[in-house]
Structures are given as structure tokens and as C-alpha cells.
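Troubleshooting log. The previous structure file for this entry was overwritten by mistake, so regenerating from the original sequence record. Sequence copied from the archived sheet and checked twice against the printout by T.R.
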Amino acid sequence: MTYAYTIIYVENVVDTITFYESAFGFSQKFITPEKDYGELLSGETTIAFATFALGNSNFKQGFEQTSRTKKPFGIELAFTTENIEADFEKAINAGATIYEPLVEKPWGQKVGYLRDNNGLLIEICTPIKS
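Regenerated output below.
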């Protein structure tokens, strides 16, 4: 078995992919003609987005939608970088909001948390050095 995708349900797939391109430097891999599903080139595991409407068609029992105004879900996407201050600032300039500022952990790793254009938690961190 292989971990293939993380799919996040959002209001607008195109706006979200555009945000991730601008904020984090990822590239669009694919968007359906209906613009209800899209993927980013993000490494070995694909980050994908689907509309709330598509989610509602998949999940007859419903689901909790992402929100910029409510507390974020207890899940995050984590991105590592060697240029954490610059990449953190780049994401903010693209519209991300600070959830927790950059700090250095006792083990030497720098970590900060943002919220994306949908309210999802994003961790920006330096790689853990062993």
C-alpha cells in the first residue's frame, strides 16, 4: 500500500491552487474541466483539493467544512524548508495568516504555523537534523 493523496475539500479549487502556487511555490498538476477537483505537484504525495459540492456528493452523511472563521481542524500540512523566514514571509504576503509565529524548538528545529486561504493549518519548518 502507498500513501497517494491528501484531499482537502474547499469552496473554490482554482483559487486554492493559485494560493498554493503563490504562497508555497507548488505547481498545478491537474484541474478537472468542471473545476471541482485539482492537484498540485508537491513531491511524492499529492496534495489535492475538491469542492464542497463534490464532497457533499461523496459523503451522504456530510462533513465539517474548512472555515477561516472557526478554529482549524486538528490536522495540518507540513512543509520543510531551509529558508524558513523568507518562505514564511512569502506565504503571508500571498494571503496566509499567522496562527503561531516562528519559534525554535529545544531540538533545534524552527517551526511556525499559518492558516491557508481556507483556514487549514500549515506548518512551515526546517528539517529535523539527526
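DSSP finds three helices and eight strands in the chain. Archived copy saved in two places this time.
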